[in-house]
Specification:
Rossmann fold; nucleotide-binding (chains A, B); 30 strands; 9-stranded mixed beta sheet; homodimer; protein biosynthesis (chains A, B); 5-stranded mixed beta sheet; BirA Bifunctional Protein, domain 2; alpha+beta
Chain lengths: 570, 570
C-alpha cells in the first residue's frame, strides 16, 4: 500500500481524553477515531490489525473444531424474558422498540439466541457435542466507557457456545478451547497467562481468564515462580505461612485511645504489622444463630471479598455491618475489635491462625490486647482462606512462591452447566430416548480489545511496536527525498513491487515529507521492519534495515532484500 | 468439513412464510434461521457463502483503490440532525436512547458518519481523491420485512464513499466503481446488467443500479437487443414511434355512455387500443397559471410517474387530481377526457404526438371523439417522454429494440455532488488555499442480498445450484453405505484428506444416512461438484462424478480425482 492511497492520519498531540497508552497511541497513529463516547471508527491501519487478530482467532477456532455462524446484533426481548436476564441486565443492555412497538435489545452477548437456535435444531445426542461460534459486533452500554477500544460500548467479540450431553465431552471441549486460546495468543506474539478465574454470578465449576500481561492491566494475577500455576487474585488460594510459633509474651490489656486503625496502632506502639490482626464484621447468612460474623486477616493483608462471600456462614452478597450494628452486638466500635471475648462467630484467615504473640482489639473502646496467643488466651476459631495473596506467598500448587503481575483480560472460558438449557428448556434425547437438558460451555475473546492490549504490552516512548503476526504491514519502505532523487524513487518502486509480489505486506511512504516526519510517523505506527533507501546507500549497493523493536540498524545488499524478507516471513 | 462436525439442518417442508424460492431454499438447505421478523441467524453453510461474497467484494474494492475502514453500527443522532435526515428518515431508521438518555440511531447508511470523519481528517486537496469503504451490519426497520435475507431488517452491506476536489476525479472513481461492480458479479458467475437508474430523492447526475437477472426480480429492466444499453424501467427513455400519419378520417362525436375506461371503449367500438389516448389529470406546480395539468399517453401505454414528476409544470411528488377537482376544472368526469376543448395545459407522450385518426374523450360526460387528428382538430400540445417503455420499442441508444427483463438490485452507485459536504461543512483547501466543498460519490453492495439473488438465478426443483466461486464447498464426497463397507470408508477418507490438502473445500458426508437422503440433501444444498463412492465403482477403479448444474454423470479414475479437481479450480 502506498501512503498516498490510504489514509495516514497521525497526530503529534495526545488527545486529552486518552488516559492509557494504547488509547493515546491508537489515536496518534491514526488507527481509530472517536465518533461518540465508547464508539470508534477503525481507520485503515487500525482495521488491518483488527482483521489480522480476527483471522487468527477464526483459524484457531476452526482448527479446534468449532463451527462459525453469525447471529443478529438486534435480538427480540422475549428470549431475554425467558431467562430472566431482561430484568437482570440493567442499563448496560441497550434496548429499543421497533416500528411496531415491539421490544428488542442490542445483543451484549448471545447465550439466549444460541440456546434458542440449538433447542430448535439439535434433537438428538448424535448431533453432539457441537461448538458454534461467531465473530460479531456487540454493544454494552458501559456506565463509563473509556480507554478507547479497551472498554468501548460497541466492540468486536468472538463468542463460542458448546453443547453437550455429558460432562466428559464438556471437559474435552473446554480443554480444546483452553488450548486454542493459548495458540491464538502465542501466534500473536503476546506474553499472556491463562489464569484460574472466579465464576462469579454465572456459576459453573470451571473458568479461566486469558490475561495479556501489561503494567497498565486492570486485573492482578498471581503466578508461581516455579510452575504454570496462575490465578486471578480473586481466586488464588492463600496458603498458611508456616507453623504457629510458641507463646513468649504475656497477654496484656493496653490503652490505645488514638489507634483506631492498624496503621495508627503500629505507628504508636512497638508492634510489627505482621503481628497484628484486623477484624471485619459482616452480615451472617439468613437464619444463622447470630446476625453478624467476624472475619480476621493479618494487619498487612487484605480481605478477599470473593472468598469471604463463599463461606457458608456469610451472607452473599458480602455486606459489612454498620458501626451501630457492631456496637449493638459487641459493645465496642470497629477500631477496637479482636478475637478475645468476642460474642459472635469468628472465622480467621490461615495466616492469622499461625500467629503467636499478636495484638488485636480488646472489644473495649480504646483498648487492645498485645501478646495474644491462640488456645492459651482464646480458642482458635474456624480457619479459612480469607485473604488476597501477596508476592512471596507459597504457591498453592506446591512449587515456588507467588509473584503478582498485572494483566488485561482478553479471553474468558466458562462451563455454564445447565443454567440456560434449563430455563429455556433446551433438551436432547439421550441414547435411551430420554429428554436431557444440554450441558453448555461458553468462550469469549475480546477481538478489538486484543488490539489495545497488544499495544499496552508492546510500545516505547516513540510509539507502537507491533508483533509481526498482527502488524498492519510487515515492512515499511522509507525513501529519502525520493521526489528529488530519481535513483531513490526507482529503487523504492522496484523493491515495493518485488516485495508485494512476494506476498509481503508493505507500506511504501511515497509522500513528499521530510525524512524526520517519515521516521517519526513510522515509529509511531510501529511497523516491525523498515527499509530506508537513500542515495548514499545506493552508491554502496545497500539499503538500511531497521528493526522497530530493538532499534537495531544494519546494511542489506540491495539484491538480497527480497530474499531476506521472504526468509523472515516464510 | 465433515457433516458430523458441522450443523447440517436440512428440511423437507417449505416454511409457510417463505414466499420466494431463495427464501424457501435457504431455509430448507439450512443456510439461515429466522430469529424474528427480518432478523436471521446465518448457519455454517450459509455463512460460508456470505463470507465468499464478502471476500470477492473486498478484493475488488481493494483492487479498485478503495481503502477499508469500519464504522460503528450505533451512531449519535446529532450528525443526522445536522443533515436534516433525523426528520426525513422516518420509521425505517431505528432509534434508541443510551443510559444517559442521549439519542442514537442504528445506522441504516453512513453518509453522515463518513462525512464527519472526512471533514476532520482531510484538510488538503493533496489527500484527494479518497474512496473509503466498509463491509458492515446495517439495520433498516422495513415496514414489511420479507423474502428472507432479500429484504431483511438487519443485513450485511458494503458501502463506499469517495471524496473529490473536482468532477474529473469524481467521474474516474465512478467509472472505477462501475468496473469493480462488474468484476464482482462476473467473478461470482452471476448474469447481471448495470442499468441507468433514476437518482430519485438523492439527486446527483449519475446513478447506475447493478441488477442480477431473475424472473422473480422486483425491478423491471429495459435493455437493447443490439447494444449494452440497459436502464431501470423508471429511467429508460421512450422514443417516438415513427412519424405521424396523414389524417384519413373525419372527427366525429360518439355517444359512449358505458365506456369509462380504455378497455371498455375498445371492447364496445371498432377502435384499436393503439389508436386511443388515456388522459391523466395531475396537480400543477405551485404558482402555475392553472392548478391542474393533463398528461396523455397511448391507451396501451403506462404513465411513468418518475418522468412525469420531473416536468417543470408538474408538482412533485406527483399528485393525481380527484374527480371533484377534475369536474370543477373541466366539466366532465375522468372517463371522458381528451385533448379537444380541454381548458387546462396538456402534455402528451411522444407516441401520442405521432398518432393520427385516434379516439379520446370529448370532455363531455358519456361522449368521445373518434378520428381526431393533431393540428387539423386541435393544436399539438407540449410533447414529452411520459411513458414506460415496452418490449419492441426502439432502444434510445439507437441500436436495436428494447427487451424487458426482471432483476434484483444488488448494487447501486451514485454521484452525490455536494449535498452532504455542504450541509455538514466538509471542505478542503484547493491549490489556491480556498475552502471548497467536497464532491462525493457513494457506492453500495447488498452483500447478504447477493446470496439470495444468486439462488433466485441458480436453482432447480431439487434445490440450489451454486456457481463455483460462491459455493459453500467446492466438492461433496458422498460415500455409499460407508459404515458397512470398509473399502468405501477408506477411499472416502483418503480422497477427503488429499483434496483438502490440495486446498479444495470439501464437504464429506460421513453421516450414517441412506444414499437417498444424502443425494437429496446435497442437491438441496447445491454443492457444484459431487463424488459418489461405492463398492461397485471401486471394483472398476472408479468413482462417479456428478455436476449439480447439468446433472451430468461420468466416471473418474480413482487415481485421477485429485488432479482433476486441482485442474478445475486452478
Amino acid at each position: 500500500m502506498r501512503t498516498s492511497q490510504t489514509l495516514i492520519s497521525t497526530m503529534k498531540e495526545t488527545p486529552s481524553d486518552a488516559e492509557i497508552v494504547s488509547h493515546q497511541l491508537m489515536m496518534r497513529a491514526g488507527m481509530i477515531r472517536k465518533l461518540a463516547a465508547g464508539l470508534y471508527t477503525w481507520l485503515p491501519s487500525g482495521l488491518r490489525v483488527l482483521r489480522k487478530v480476527e483471522n487468527i482467532v477464526r483459524e484457531e477456532m476452526n482448527r479446534a473444531g468449532a463451527v462459525e455462524t453469525l447471529m443478529p446484533v438486534v435480538q427480540p426481548a422475549d428470549l431475554w424474558q425467558e431467562t430472566g436476564r431482561w430484568d437482570d441486565m440493567g442499563a448496560e443492555m441497550a434496548r429499543l422498540k421497533d416500528r411496531h412497538d415491539r421490544d428488542f435489545v442490542l445483543g451484549p452477548t448471545h447465550e439466549e439466541v444460541i440456546t434458542d437456535l440449538v433447542r430448535n435444531e439439535i434433537k438428538s445426542y448424535k448431533q453432539l457435542p457441537i461448538n458454534l461460534y461467531q465473530i460479531q459486533t456487540k454493544f454494552r452500554d458501559e456506565r463509563r466507557p473509556r480507554f478507547g477500544v479497551m472498554r468501548a460500548r460497541e466492540f468486536l467479540m468472538k463468542d463460542a457456545y458448546s453443547f453437550h450431553l455429558d460432562q466428559e465431552t464438556m471437559d474435552e471441549t473446554y480443554q480444546a478451547m483452553y488450548d486454542a486460546y493459548c495458540r491464538i495468543l502465542e501466534r500473536m506474539g503476546l506474553a499472556y497467562r491463562p489464569v484460574l478465574a472466579d465464576t462469579g454470578a454465572i456459576g459453573g465449576s470451571h473458568s479461566h481468564e486469558f490475561q495479556v500481561l501489561a503494567q497498565s492491566g486492570e486485573d492482578a494475577i498471581a503466578y508461581s515462580t516455579e510452575s504454570d500455576y496462575a490465578a486471578n487474585i480473586e481466586k488464588a488460594e492463600a496458603l498458611a505461612l508456616g507453623e504457629r510459633g510458641e507463646a513468649t509474651q504475656e497477654m496484656t490489656l493496653v490503652d490505645t485511645p488514638n489507634a483506631k486503625t492498624i496503621a495508627e496502632l503500629v505507628a504508636q506502639f512497638d508492634l510489627a504489622i505482621e503481628k497484628t490482626v484486623k477484624t471485619l464484621i459482616v452480615k451472617a447468612v439468613e437464619g444463622a444463630e447470630h446476625e453478624l460474623v467476624a472475619l480476621m486477616v493479618r494487619g498487612d493483608h487484605e480481605l478477599n471479598e470473593v472468598k469471604a462471600e463463599k463461606l457458608p456462614l456469610v451472607a452473599a452478597p458480602l455486606t459489612f455491618a454498620s458501626e451501630e450494628e457492631i456496637r449493638a452486638a459487641i459493645g465496642a466500635g470497629p477500631g477496637s475489635l479482636g478475637p478475645v471475648n468476642l460474642p459472635i462467630p469468628v472465622i480467621v484467615d490461615r495466616s492469622v491462625a499461625t500467629l503467636n504473640d499478636f495484638g488485636a482489639g480488646a472489644n473495649i473502646d480504646g483498648k487492645h490486647y498485645f501478646g495474644i496467643n491462640w488456645e492459651r488466651d482464646v480458642a482458635l476459631p474456624e480457619v479459612a482462606d480469607l485473604r488476597n495473596v501477596v508476592e512471596g506467598d507459597l504457591s498453592p500448587c506446591g512449587n515456588g512462591t507467588l509473584k503478582i503481575a498485572r494483566g488485561i483480560e482478553v479471553g474468558h472460558i466458562f462451563q455454564l452447566g445447565t443454567k440456560y438449557s434449563e430455563s429455556m428448556n433446551a433438551t436432547v434425547l439421550d441414547p435411551n430416548g430420554k429428554a436431557t437438558p444440554l450441558i453448555m460451555g461458553c468462550y469469549g475473546v475480546g477481538v478489538s480489545r486484543i488490539v489495545a492490549a497488544a499495544i499496552e504490552q508492546n510500545h516505547d516512548d516513540r510509539g507502537i511496536i507491533w508483533p509481526d503476526a498482527i502488524a498492519p504491514y510487515q515492512v515499511a519502505i522509507l525513501p529519502m527525498n525520493m521526489h528529488k532523487s530519481h535513483r531513490v524513487a526507482e529503487l523504492a518502486e522496484k523493491l515495493y513491487a518485488e516485495l508485494t509480489a512476494a506476498g509481503i505486506e508493505v507500506l511504501f511512504d511515497d509522500r513528499k515529507e521530510r525524512p524526520g516526519v517519515m521516521f517519526a510517523d513510522h515509529e509511531l505506527i510501529g511497523i516491525p521492519h523498515t527499509i530506508v533507501i537513500g542515495d548514499r546507500g545506493i552508491d554502496d549497493g545497500n539499503v538500511e534495515y531497521k528493526v522497530r523493536k530493538t532499534g537495531e540498524k544494519s546494511e542489506l545488499a540491495i539484491d538480497q532484500v527480497v530474499e531476506f524478507f521472504k526468509g523472515k516471513f516464510a
